[in-house]
TrEMBL record:
<dbReference type="InterPro" id="IPR036188">
    <property type="entry name" value="FAD/NAD-bd_sf"/>
</dbReference>
<keyword id="KW-0274">FAD</keyword>
<dbReference type="InterPro" id="IPR020946">
    <property type="entry name" value="Flavin_mOase-like"/>
</dbReference>
<comment type="similarity">
    <text>Belongs to the FMO family.</text>
</comment>
<dbReference type="InterPro" id="IPR050346">
    <property type="entry name" value="FMO-like"/>
</dbReference>
<keyword id="KW-0285">Flavoprotein</keyword>
<dbReference type="InterPro" id="IPR000960">
    <property type="entry name" value="Flavin_mOase"/>
</dbReference>
<dbReference type="Pfam" id="PF00743">
    <property type="entry name" value="FMO-like"/>
</dbReference>
<protein>
    <recommendedName>
        <fullName>Flavin-containing monooxygenase</fullName>
        <ecNumber>1.-.-.-</ecNumber>
    </recommendedName>
</protein>
<keyword id="KW-0560">Oxidoreductase</keyword>
<keyword id="KW-0503">Monooxygenase</keyword>
<keyword id="KW-0521">NADP</keyword>
Amino acid sequence: MAKSTYCIIGAGLAGINAARHAREAGGEVTVFEQTSKVGGTWVYTDEIGKDRHGLDIHTSMYQGLKTNIPKEIMGFPDFPIGEQEESYVTSQDVLKFIENFTEQFELHKHVKFEHHVIRVTRKLDCEKWEVLVKDLQANSYDSYLFDYILVCNGHFFSPFIPKIPGHETFKGRQMHSHDYRSPAPFAGKNVVVVGGSHSGMDVAIASASIAKQLALSHRCPERLNIFYDEVVQKPEIARIYENEVEFVDGTRQICDVLVYCTGYRTSFPFLSVDCGITVEENHVQPLYKHCINIRHPSMSVIGLPFSVCFTLMVDLQIRFCIKFFSGGKRLPSEAEMTADTKADEEERTRRGFLKRQAHMLSGDLQQRYYDDLARIADIEPLKPVLTKLYTVCVREKKLDIMNYRNNVYRIIDDENFIKVN
């Protein structure tokens, strides 16, 4: 029998993991990566805007970035991140982990670098996926046929910038954190950072000491735990003027630079309509268990859930999908998958989740999701200690944003961990 063919879009953390598991399941694997390296968003570059091929720069890495969860819950189950003493590691450490993983499982030979996926279409006459790809080096196009598709292009590359009244009148610089590399351009400037999540906090803390004045605008009802006196915390922006901004409390701030740390739009520009996938306010549907395309269950979208142990979750999702793709288990019927997905969405509505939180797995949802995937596909589950440690780390970050990355943890067994310092 001919081997099943797998197309994997993206050679970032998810893509190389998918290549490993698809190959180990007996598949013939091809990974398309539009850059020249593995690593995806973890690859740092000083470039912003467009690359030399005229494509959007994919990575959003910035200088000095350290992970916001510890490495103990960031590796793959059988391939941890390094032996560093510290728990919170640098982006270079994570990239080295991805490179080592790629080398260990001899995955480079499956990756077509500088190949940009243009279009994925469902071929109903042969029940396969047609993938149109541009070879960026040769400036030529090729069409491929595959049995299975794993979409691993990530979702931190299409910046979301809110349209605040008056934004078109602003005479200073407006930028998204996707283009932030270092605080150096903010020296002596009046800076307003919009957004109080991970990147907003990092940009504010890194820039406060060199900016003339720095305000952090966010929607949190209480002040965020930042101990820099230089950071002025403000509510949401009501209106933007030529050289200042007005907040919803009526106060104003002079502004030279507006930095939008406002997240990303989930986007799959290469998926044709006949793939059956739609995206509305970052809600990707219809997906069974947040990953398998219900209309065409030989396609999966990897890495959508957030507020999770991301790397471990990605590995679990991939093992889940490939268990079905390889014939190891039979998927439920389309009606059963649809009903399961509807029940999940109804529970989220009862909990008060917004549409943009359709893939959020906060609180008890995270471990339950992991357990469901493992049980349904009959695969190795994730240990409860991982979500326990994640929950503690999120809490400690909220309590001490300036110092939480100094904490060091060690996992003792499947249920327990210790804090070393």
